[in-house]
Q: What sequence folds into this?
């Protein structure tokens, strides 16, 4: 278990006493200097320590229930108690995390989930089916037992959603394979609406991509994953992304080159709603094939030997920034599930500002770091509900 130093229950203080407090029914001896000056509702005994294992002479450990639920009252009460010679220590009623791990049998091979601190992040939320992520790719295997429960079908132009290459199915699994279902792997976001927007097979069709982005705009889909790209700078593609109000997550490319010098589109468009993602190896270094760029690539995520869903109900390992981007898309879906009112710009700010800095990335990506899903939630909590945009 893990403890956040600043996360504790408001209105409660734990104290260890050298003498037992006097209690007659619900009436306390308020004249006792141990709690003199502390405005409380009741005192609850937690336990009486054994004297054989108690060098500090503690007679009783109690829980003060304060009248004020302001966290500042906790600090005040601790200060008052700590100044009393009959109090051995006083501390907040800390909140600890459950280190949630899914029961999916292949989870142990998902090194990337540990790397992005997903188990800690899942204490906050494992997602919501009300949050939708568009997967613009080669299609998704709709019969896969680890995906079918999370899949949505758009219809119309995108009715033909069959995946003939396995690429889109693999990407979708990293975003949101069903978690904790005793089957295969888990996605970053266990519960999510994955909408399958097929835009190609071996190659991505520009017109289809533009149609898919416009579809997402019309249907207010908040997050799009785009594990594809090329060197051609399309004005129409840029315009479609610019018109889209959601978060557009794009893979940086697999040429091992600097996108600041040789741009990769759509990742390299200088638009506020884009996050460009590089690939990281398990040793926390940039993957040899990954594109980079201190100005145009924002963050890194696991992208080598990534295990995920494949065609015909199978699972496979793949490499590429295509595998890195859906880690970020899944994290964005978790964040949107936790704070539904966040805009695309809010999510981008929170994800990038909470990146975990790594030495090898300091001159490779704008944040100098890797996605940290747990720090993402800590940042969101610190900022609260206020809009950032």
A:
């Amino acid at each position: 278990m893990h403890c956040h130093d600043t996360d504790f229950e408001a209105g409660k203080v734990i104290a260890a006493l050298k003498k037992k407090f006097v209690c007659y029914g619900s009436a306390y001896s308020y004249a006792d200097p141990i709690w003199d000056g502390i405005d409380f509702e009741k005192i609850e005994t937690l336990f009486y320590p054994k004297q054989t294992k108690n060098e500090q002479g503690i007679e009783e450990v109690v829980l003060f229930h304060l009248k004020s639920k302001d966290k500042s009252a906790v600090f005040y009460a601790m200060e008052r108690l700590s100044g009393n010679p009959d109090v051995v220590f006083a501390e907040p009623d800390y909140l600890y995390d459950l280190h949630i791990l899914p029961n999916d049998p292949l989870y142990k091979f998902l090194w990337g989930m540990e790397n992005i601190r997903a188990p800690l992040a899942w204490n906050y939320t494992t997602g919501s089916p009300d949050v939708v992520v568009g997967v613009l790719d080669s299609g998704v295997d709709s019969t896969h037992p680890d995906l079918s429960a999370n899949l949505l079908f758009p219809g119309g132009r995108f009715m033909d959603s069959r995946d003939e290459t396995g690429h889109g199915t693999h990407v979708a699994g990293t975003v949101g394979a069903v978690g904790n279902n005793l089957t295969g792997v888990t996605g970053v976001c266990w519960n999510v609406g994955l909408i399958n927007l097929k835009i190609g097979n071996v190659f991505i069709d520009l017109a289809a991509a533009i149609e898919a982005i416009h579809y997402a705009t019309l249907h207010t889909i908040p997050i799009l994953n785009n594990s594809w790209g090329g060197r051609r700078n399309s004005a129409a593609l840029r315009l479609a992304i610019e018109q889209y109000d959601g978060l557009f997550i794009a893979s940086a490319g697999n040429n091992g080159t600097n996108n600041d010098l040789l741009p990769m589109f759509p990742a390299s468009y200088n638009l506020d709603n884009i996050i460009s993602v590089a690939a990281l190896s398990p040793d926390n270094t940039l993957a040899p094939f990954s594109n980079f760029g201190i100005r145009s690539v924002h963050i890194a995520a696991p992208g080598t030997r990534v295990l995920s869903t494949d065609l015909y109900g199978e699972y496979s390992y793949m490499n590429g920034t295509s595998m890195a981007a859906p880690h970020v898309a899944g994290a964005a879906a978790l964040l949107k599930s936790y704070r539904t009112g966040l805009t695309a710009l809010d999510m981008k700010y929170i994800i990038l500002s909470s990146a975990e800095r790594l030495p090898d990335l300091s001159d490779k990506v704008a944040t100098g770091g890797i996605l940290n899903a747990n720090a993402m939630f800590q940042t969101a909590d610190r900022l609260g509900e206020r809009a950032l945009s």
The chain has nine helices and 17 strands.
